[in-house]
Batch of 4 targets.
Target 1
Amino acid sequence: MSGFLRRLLHIAARPMRRDRGQGGYVVHPYRGYGSRHEVLLMGRVFRQAALGDVIPRYGVLRDLADVIRRVFRRGLPQVTVEVTLGENVTKVTTDRDGYFDVLLSIEHPLPQDSAWHHAELHVVLPGVEPVQSFTEVYIPPTEADLLVISDIDDTVMYTGVANKLRMLHRLFVKQAHQRMAFPGVAAFYQALHVGRSGKAKRPILYVSRGPWSIYEMLEEFFQLNRIPVGPILFLREWGISWRKPWPRRAEDHKYDLIQHMLEMRDELPCVLIGDSGQHDPEVYARIVHEYPERIRAVYIRRVERKPDRERAIHALREEIRHTGCDLVLAEDSAAMAEHACAQGLIAEEGLEQVRRTSQS
């Protein structure tokens, strides 16, 4: 357990290492996503304390000091953030905790020979050097014909969300190569990404209830398991601050983000993928009610067999049946792929690959 706690401490301290203990003002953006008409990106502006010379550069004491700095760092309210993407420029103001959401209209077209675009952020504060940063924004190519939005925890990667201690152990202690991907997941998501034509290049957006501090681990996990790396990993800021000691509710976080994604690409149908262990079926059914003509299918991985929970999911399936959207409670990736192939969402070759890898 002592090793577990040290690992937790090390992960919680990781976001603080970028400043090398110098402290000061920081603008921290996350990667963005958008269309040829507008893009969305998020971030925060905050001030954090510096470390004294007596604190060692490495070890538990340094991690503890960085966690304390993170807890007490102060978001800067009412700060203007200027965002530049190509020739498109906008300004936003941070909220009371220093967070900002940018919805930037694309009035000057971006190059179409690349899906990734470089965005620069600029903050001017009185009496200090200007604060600058940058991030990347992903815009799907024109041939994309489907939007895929997927949960991660117990949907792509087994974390055991029903067992909180086990989930923390897998998230924070296990290295990326030790984490367990569900059989057939990589083949299924690859099939969804390329579509029936093999050239669709559909965007796959991943939403997790985990904190931003495990971002790098998740990217490594996806690459090691050959799961298509989504342009965006939408995680939660777990609110490790004096004002907000608890994270935002996962279902609210997921619902709001899915709404944003659907509204930005209103020409694209969508597939939603989640698991039965938390709130995914309820959140997704709510989305289907609000966008009945957009959601082609909802795939829910069965991760537990509680009779009350299964009855609730079956009731949701009947509740949305009139929209033409199927809610599939699936035993494995192969069951999802079989339905997707029957609906024309993936090719036969993709289905066969999912079947082969699901049995391995």
Target 2
Amino acid sequence: MRSSRRHPLVVLVLLCALAVLVARPTGAADHATGDGPSGVSAQVARLYEEAAVATRQYEAVRQKAEAQRAKAERYEALLDRERREIAVLHKGLGRIARAQYRTGGGVPLTAQIILADSPDELMRGQRVFSQAQLAVGNALDKSRRAETRLAADEATAEAAWQDLERRNAQLAQLKKDIERKLDEARRQLQGQADASVAAGSCGGAARIDQPQVSGTRAWVAPVETYEMSASFGSGGERWAHRHTGQDFAVPIGTPVRSVGTGRVVRVSCGGAFGMQVVIGHPGGYYSQYGHLASVTVDQGERVSPGQWIGQSGSTGNSTGPHLHFEVRITPELGSSVDPVPWLEARGVRL
């Protein structure tokens, strides 16, 4: 089984996003209080968006925390190196002191003047000794300053890392709360979808807020984040012959998108595909989306690439939540072609 995931790149300010995440779940729950399909569908769509934001923020903070940890470790390594250099300087200073003592460096200045063969010899000795002491002193001062600075930087880095860890825990709790609400909304959505399929009536489109769709791509994948499961032509006990499409394993309530520009030619409930939508595209091809939990378009409606046309589910002849996607040369079952190379030929690699 080949898997693929697509995630949008979003850059958000941490503090602002944290405040937004704290406020948004309550607002979403209050706004979507209706008991009908539209109310639950809208609630699921909003909770999906909030869970995605929380997940991205969680990952962003986790990565930031790891970067902060690595920075602290670099500070520690640098500090250790400076300490080793200071130890080397201390040893060097000890050697200089011992050499001075052996060569007269410890003799009082008056005695050195008496014992010196010439004034030049005395001055050279004193100059060399003074320069050596100055160089060692400067090196020690520099290392001490560096050690003090690095210790402060290390403490700052550790405090920042601990702060990021606290934020990480807060975001993880927010994500957990959103997913708990999402699970409940999914259950309600699937229950309403099963009732509609059993009655053989979809009950009209569930209108939810549509995302802003970029007009630069003519074709897109039917779901944004997914794992590919049963493929075209594969065998299975639940199919009369061979599998007629490509399955995408996604949770209940995942937004399902029109793969391209077209017109909705069929919205139906019941049968093997449960709740389904069929869209006609320019060039004589049709795309079908089966086992849905909700439909957000009406028959005859024009759609654009990436527009949400429904939400995934597990209605009809289904063993679990997934989207069954087909590409056909007619609106009817039995005229399907392999959708993976068909989409790849249009620039969509699954």
Target 3
Amino acid sequence: MRAAVLHETGQDKLEVLDDVEAVGFGPGKVRIRVRATGLCHSDVSAMSGVLPQPAPFVPGHEGAGEIVEVGDGVAGLAPGDRVLLCWLPACGACPSCRRGQPHLCLAGFMNAGTPNFARPGGDVFGFAGTGTFAEEVVVDAGCAVPIPDDVPFDIAALIGCGVTTGLGAAINTAQVQAGSSVAVIGCGGVGISAIQGSRLQGAAEIVAVDPVASRREAALRFGATEAVAPDGLADAKQRVTAGEGFDYVFEVVGRSQTARTAYETTRRGGTLCVVGAGAMDDHLQLTMFELFFDEKRILPSLYGGGDVLRSYERAIALWRAGRIDLESLITHRVPLAGINDALAQMRSGEALRTCVEI
């Protein structure tokens, strides 16, 4: 079986090998033939070591495909079912699940430490317990979420992470209010989805902030009312909010420097929503006085901050109704053999989302 493998953390390229085997199949598991997967910035962050992940590993966590085989004890799934992969499945029994916060369930994270691939040289992990840059993957049955027949694999893959994360940040976490002002810092696939979510919620002004001109142009097509480079944010704050600051600012980069800028761009009493996945040693500095005096809400948003299964259903319904545009998020397509081209497209900012067709 073919899969793209990162041999050591810190390497910037993947090697596509044909001697990889998806392992771990058994009770409670399903084997999935991956058909499409998106390249998410979190994959690149794991490759560089910003996000913790044992190596060697197969990146990819935003995928969709068909079930090939189901293990004993699996109910509601059968060979041939079309599914998207949920990289953070809820167990339904832990304290987080019981209190209605299934997106904070840690059961899925435990899978990241168990190898689900192997090759002659030894064990290979799957990023976030999945590893969708492969022709097949074996995962817990809870990771396989059935999708309707009218949802293409490439669209389903995007819903599996980036779309759910961005939409959910605006709808579930920040709960953007109609008529409000919004700034979104970082306009890749997740940032564009946050823009679409803010538009759905009725935001009056949505300022997209990104250093890449093509991404700024795309943000306008997806609902931003204006788009500026980072050095134009201060001027936009002055023009749009009379210098007060935005009601909502989404940080979708995952860096303390950007988060600090986002905080300063948020009005007193406003909301800073942190969506970007950052490093464990990158510290955001705030004074105790400004926390008290400004009364700004700082809301981290993990995977859209809500019940992901309900979020998937909502995204599909909105897409069907033409309320959100998911097709245009896919700006590039490559075969698995071209995965390093996809990485270059992401690192340069050329792509919103590259679909890897497997």
Target 4
Amino acid sequence: MKNKLKLGQAAGVVAFAIIIGAVSMSSSSTVDARAALKENRTVNAGVALDLTEVADATELLTAGATSALTYYGAELTVAQNDSNVVTASAQGTPQSDDTAQEEAQANEAAQTPTAAQTCGYTNLGMSVISSGNLNIRQEASTDSEVVGILTNHNACELLEDAGDWYKVTSGKVTGYVSKQYLVTGAEAEAIAEQEIKTVATVNTETLNVRAEKSTESAVLSQVGNSEAFTVNSVADGWVEINVDDSVGYISQDYVTVAQALPTAKTIEQVKYGDGVSDVRASVVSYALQFVGNRYVWGGTSLEKGVDCSGFTMRILGKYGISLPHSSKAQPSYGTKISSSDAKPGDLFFYGSGRSISHVAIYIGNGQIVHASNKRDGIKVSNAFYRSPICVVRYLPN
């Protein structure tokens, strides 16, 4: 092979090579590296510590490099002169390792789905309220009918900008919300990152909650279709959840597990129809004001924290019904009725076997409001999310 070329320290020439995959160049031509810069106009050049010729009859030279600098744009060319010496020259600003690392991190972050994207939102809004609930109204007016409620840090999809209002959809509710209680953009995304949870939604009519991860284990309670629970863990085909004050397991075969953000509650449960007294309607309306507040075992404060029996004790106490702070004791202070006869304001009691461990207030249309557990606080649920042991009436018809 003719024109053998060996470049090293003896040659006294510092050779550079362009690293763009494997580079081949003709010994009689000048190659302008800008042709390979593409859109970001970035090429790598490095000092060739051991560049060896491989020129054959067609006089093609393959250049390799072991150390790299990154240059942006400008004039970067590679040439081979008559003495078969490959040289490179560049004008531009070298990119530091820190800058390259920052760019790599930025590119990676851009490819990672946001909390909003993960949960299916394209124009996310998050509610920010210091206390109570945020009304979702049928029209963009404070005189319009309330069709749903948002609690603090609930998510919604922004559908329309209506001046001082946004038209939104959240959960099963669509309506208008005052702009002053919603945040959007980066601020909404930051809240969503903190609030996103893994949720298991029941997709069968009735599902047993087991004490252990086995169909032979004791049944703690039963949960109903469409009831959603925050997931503690998933393993061996079982989903660990909190049901009221207990930890239990439901079969992964009968739930849909997905990432979700908290959403609005429908107000349909407070639309009662005929035969419900103003007192019962008032009890439910009053109880719903505290949805989203904290659950505290042994607590009796509706604002600072309350447990299940503390909640029913305080709510009914406002209407002259005196109850002890005990879910086991409260049934004896009223009249037991069939669940099919329940009216808003009656109490549903739950537990295992005949042992009562939880109590909730019926709000109509198959729904209850209760101080559920530390994770979920005071919330609205399906009245038959587990089988009630008994239903008790305290208020007059």
